Amino acid sequence: MQQRLPIAVCFIAGALMFLQYFSPHPVARAVFVTINDYWQIIFAFTLLVGIAAFVRTNLRQISRGKEAPYRLIGLAGLVLMPVLAVFGGIKIESPFQWAFENMLAPMQATVFSLLAFFVASASFRGFRARNAQAVILLAAALVVLIGRVPITEMISDTFPKITFWVQNYPSMAARRGILIGIGLGSMTTALRVILGIERTYLRGE
Amino acid sequence: MDIGLIIAGVLTLAIYTFLYKDNPIYKAAESLLIGLSIGYALVIYWQTTLVDRLLTPLFARGELLMIIPLVLGLLMFTRFSNRLSWLSRIPIALMIGAGAGVAIPAMLYARTLKQISASVMPLMDGGGFNVEALVVIVGLLSTLAYFYFSREHKGAMGITAKIGTYFLMIFFGATFGYTVMSRMSTFIGRIDFLLTDFLRILA
């Protein structure tokens, strides 16, 4: 029961979603919309479960005195957004949107920009032209780096053209090879999941 | 100065203190970012999914069938119980199964057929030889050969797979360069914000 019921649910949902693709009938469309809605709702509940676990873990760590100030700040941030949404709504110019624009968005963009330093320092330490492949990798990276800087375009329009060519032909060819591999692999895995051969999602409770 | 601008500037600087070393100011800003991100996701999903798709249809419009996703969603909370946690497998199975069912035709179309059709271009174009078409088809076939593990990479297969690694290196290098430039672009944007809007040095 504990194994068979989830496998049956998985098979029915998977088969319905697969078969509806081949039918333009309104019933098939309704099945797709209904299961998609269920998917979205369950996903929202999984988020709630995750938040509950986050709060529980943090409260437990605070009671043990482990990095209590940081965990309190995290919980305060978690409480702040719903409180602002409850009292001011979530429309434009609401306190909720104000907090998003002046607190969340700047910090997200800054953390994202920090990666420029990590990538640069990691590549400086890791990139060595030891063999032909490494030389090609370095050359391709340099071509794109140089070709995408505005000053090189002012010097000569050849750099952007070379960059465009590298990105759109040899690089794109390898990218398509990888995408085709991902597509074939995903289809196989999806089929295994629907047929109940792949059951790793049933592990762990 | 606008209070929002001051807060955004201070939080930006707090994150950048990490460039010196890991410190309490950065840790505090990081914790705040995590909390705010979760809070933001909670509000958005609550409003756009739970209220709009579940609670309004169920309680305001009386669509009783919406009890099914409500029950399935609530079953997720059984993960906190050792005895009943197996019940959470049912909604997970529905999500995984539905995702897999959608993935098969989507992957076949977007990731496989579309990519193949886009790669097949005429070798003779406008009276001249199309070098790009040759590069793309050689690159695609050699890359696929590299990822084909059912046959040993020896002889012609080995040479083709070796050529595939060169194309893969071009892809990795180009992707690396593009990623660095996108991060740099964001960094320039943040520095521009600090110097122009926050500190008003360049204003």
Describe the structure.
The complex is a heterodimer of chains A (205) and B (203). Chain A has 205 residues and is an all-alpha fold. Chain A has helices at 4-19, 26-63, 68-88, 95-126, 132-147, 150-155, 158-168, 170-194. In chain A, α2 crosses α3 (68-88) and α7 (158-168) runs parallel beside α8 (170-194). By secondary structure, chain B is mostly helical. Among the domains of chain B are: 1-62, no CATH class; 130-203, no CATH class. Chain B contains 6 helices and 2 strands, in the order ααααββαα. In chain B, β1 and β2 form a beta hairpin. In chain B, α1 packs across α2 (24-60) and α5 (131-146) crosses α6. The chains are: A mainly alpha (205), B mainly alpha (203). The interface between A and B is large, with 119 and 113 residues.
How would you describe the shape of chain B?
extended
Strands in their spatial order, largest beta sheet of chain B: 1-2
Report the largest inter-chain contact: A-B, 119 and 113 residues
**What is the N-to-C succession of helices and strands of chain A?**
HHHHHHHH
Low-confidence stretches of chain B: none
Largest sheet, strands/sense/barrel of chain B: 2 strands, antiparallel
- Series of secondary-structure elements of chain B, N-terminal to C-terminal: HHHHEEHH
Q: What oligomeric state is this?
A: heterodimer
Shape verdict of chain A: extended
How much strand of chain B?
A: under 5%
How many individual helices of chain A? 8
Query: How many strand units of chain B?
Result: 2
Uncertain spans of chain A, ≥5 residues at pLDDT below 50?
none
Find the structural class of chain B using helix and strand composition.
Answer: mainly alpha
The level of helicity of chain B is over 70%
What structural category arises from helix and sheet content of chain A?
mainly alpha
> Could you give the distance between the termini of chain B?
13 Å
Number of helices of chain B: 6
